[in-house]
Structures are given as structure tokens and as C-alpha cells.
Amino acid sequence: MLFLPGQPRLKFNDIGANVPDNEAMHTGGCLCGGVRYEIRGALRGVLACHCSQCRRTSGHYAAMTSAPSAAINLTSSATLRWYRSSDSAERGFCEVCGGNLFWKQARRDALSITAGTLDVPTGIAMEEHIFVADKSDYYRIDDGLPKKQHW
């Protein structure tokens, strides 16, 4: 993204033209196509969550971006199911292909989206690792990004 003082935030769209972040459009979905979504506006950078729940739902760690709930439009959701994974959060997945798509914290007006479900180009990058105290023992985190023991 290109940030200029006193100017609207800009990013490059698919054809290389600058568009304001609030006009950017991102799309994505699950493997089988049963769940598809559109997101209008800027996405947060990607957080790598190493908590035990994200490890179990993703098979490794979960790479998540987020956007305000109002900016997300489900264009296809017939196979979307929600699982309450804790008292404070639920996870959205596809009941057909098993795709892990969303994480929603209770009483928060944002939805986290698994970065791997976004269509490319995404225009985002990994920013930090969270819950590294809970990571599994079979891998190292040595990419130089900030690491938080919790969130």
C-alpha cells in the first residue's frame, strides 16, 4: 500500500491503478466454492495465531486478516456452518470441503478471515505472530516478525 501524508490511503488494484483503500475490493472463498465472499475496503495485515484452537482447526497455525463485519458480503453461503469454539468466539467453515474461513469474537464488530482463502493478489502481508507460547514443538518461528506470547 502507498501512504502519503494528507492524501487518501491508496493501494494498487489488479491492473496496477491506484484506488483508495475504502474502494478496494477483495474476494475469496473455500475450496469447493460453496462459500464465497466479497470485502470492500482495507484489510488488516496478517496475524499468525499459534493458539491450540487455531492449530487444531487449521492443521498448523492460522494466518488471519480482518475487516469490519459491515464490509463483508457473503455471495454464496449455502455450505457455511458456524462452530462455537469457546465462550467468546465462533468459527465459520464449509460443511462440504471443510475449509476454515472465519473467526468471530463475541461483542466485536469485525470478522477475521483466513488469509489463504483470499483470491490473489491480496495486497496484504504477514505482520506478527501471536500466542507463540502455545505453538507446537515441531517448528520454529524465525522469520524476524514480532512475536507475542499471547494476544
- Class per helix and strand makeup: mainly beta
Q: pLDDT average, as an integer? A: 88
Largest sheet strand order: 8-9-10-11-6-5-12
- The best one-word shape is globular
CATH third-level topology: Metal Binding Protein, Guanine Nucleotide Exchange Factor, Chain A
How helical, in percent, are the residues?
A: under 10%
Distance between the termini: 25 Å
Topology as a string of helices (H) and strands (E) = EEEEEHEEEEEEE
Kindly estimate the percentage of residues that lie in beta strands according to DSSP.
35-45%
Nearest-angstrom radius of gyration?
16 Å
Q: Give the number of domains.
A: 1
Strand segment tally: 12
CATH architecture: Beta Complex
CATH class: Mainly Beta
Q: Helix count?
A: 1
Instruction: Give a quick account of the main beta sheet: strands, pairing sense, barrel closure.
Output: 7 strands, mixed
List the helices and strands and how they pair.
Layout: E1 10-12, E2 18-20, E3 25-29, E4 36-40, E5 46-49, H1 52-58, E6 62-68, E7 72-76, E8 80-86, E9 89-94, E10 100-105, E11 110-114, E12 126-130
Parallel strand pairs: 5-12
Antiparallel strand pairs: 1-2, 3-4, 4-7, 5-6, 6-11, 8-9, 9-10, 10-11
